From TrEMBL:
It comes from Victivallis lenta. Residues 1-19 have a biased composition (Low complexity). This is Recombinase family protein. CDD domains: SR_ResInv (cd03768). Residues 1-34 are annotated as: Disordered.
Amino acid sequence: MTGGFSRRSPPWRKSSPEPIGTATVSSGSPRRSNVAEITTSKRCAIYTRKSTDEGLDMDFNSLDAQREAAEAFIASQKHRGWSCLETDYSDGGFSGGNTERPALKRLLADIKSGKIDVVVVYKIDRLSRSLLDFASLQTVFDEHQVSFVSVTQDINTSTSSGRMMLNILMTFAQYEREIITERIRDKIAAAKKKGKHCGGPAPLGYASDPQTKKLIPGHIGDPM
C-alpha cells in the first residue's frame, strides 16, 4: 500500500458466475447434462375382417391386403418401439354389425391377459360398424391401456384429437349401416306389396312360384 490508497484487483480479474445448467469438471470445461429419450416397446396386434367369404380362397385376398397395409404402418413406427405380433386375428365371412366373431374374441382375451399394447386395423369399420359395440370395445381398450389405430384414417386414440376423430367417424359408420338397413327393408316391403315371396317358409296354404317369386294358393303342381 502506498500513499494511503488500497490496491484493488482489476475488474478483468473478477470471477464471473457459472452459467446456469452447466457443471464444472477438473479440466475447467463446462459439461451439459443430456436427457436420453426413453423408448417403450409396443406390441401391436393386427385385426382384419371381411363381411363375406367370397374370394377368401385366393392366394392374396382382402384380409391379406389389410394385414399388409397394417404391417407397413407398424414398420414405419419402429423408431417408437412398435413391433408386430405374429398371432393372426382375422375374421373372414363375419359381419361388423355384432361382436360374435371368433378372432375378435381371441383378440379381447389377449388384451385382458396383457399381451397387447396397440390394436391396428385397416379401417374403423373392420373392427365394428355399430357405435354401441365399438363403445364397449373402446371401454375394454381403455381399461387395459391399449391404444387403437386406424391406418387409412390416421386415428390414434393415445391422443385427444385422435379420440375425437374416432367418435365422429364411428357416428358416420353407424349412420351408413342404418341407411343400408332401411334400403333393404323398403325393398322387401315393396316386393311384398307386389305379391312376391321374399324368402323363408311360405304361409300356410300358399306356395312360392320359383319363376315369378309370387305366392300362389295351394302347392305348385297340384291341380287347381
